[in-house]
Amino acid sequence: GPDFGYVCREPLFEATTSLDSFGNLEVSPPVTVAGKEYPLGRILIGSSFPTSAGRRMTRVVRDFLYAQQVQAPVELYSDWLSVGHVDEFVTFVPTSDTKRFRMLMASPAACYKLFREKQKEGQGEATMFKGKGTAGSFGRALIGKAMLDLEAWGKAAAKRGVDAPLRGEADGGGRPVAFLRLHQSRRRWAPLVSPPQITMIILDADLGVPKPFGPVVGGECCLERQTRSLLEPLGLRCRFLEDVASYHGRLGEVRCGTNVQRRPFAFKWWHVAP
User: Fold this and answer.
1) Model's pTM, two decimal places?
2) How confident is the model at residue 148 (pLDDT cuts 50, 70, 90)?
3) Catalytic residue set
């Protein structure tokens, strides 16, 4: 259409991986880092450690993104996930205070802490994915079973330094999300306990959050309750959307099949110089 353009980058001799999908491409809100302003934000992409033989975004795409100096990319370690996308463990939500936004990070440690509390309260037999037993082998998982997996994950995460700490609301806070080991021999991991709430669709103050189907305690999903307690004080509203059969069972989430039409910047962003 008029005033619309696109660019295509394809590798000629390089194999592509899941990290080349654009669930692995995020952009932060406008930020200032060490006195340098980034009025169009920073590009975030998932990668492996530089010294490892893990997956990385194909070079032709990485080179193209790095050429966009005005949004100087930041690479985050995401190859510990089975799909390996940066949007599986980090996102940004708007706020009306002076900070203007919060970065949210998924935290297996926060999930472990929450499940441990419920277990001590005598809720260790609470069922996850209630009514969704056919969704997968994890459909009838109990808190007690999930605790064993999370404990193993926590020890491995501590060695790798990949878990986000549970912080106060002023810093955004860790979101309780559980990641389970998928292929231990290949050191791959996948979010199999519950749909990661972090992969949400953001409509101003309304958040379309994947319904986690966590343990129901006192008639309410404890993961939903914890998520609301972290985000509602920021003036945000959580709308939990079921996507188990449509996306989660196929290693995706609600944002994989939805999009949002945004208002462009009022200034001529294409004139911004690095």
Assistant:
1) 0.76
2) low
3) 256
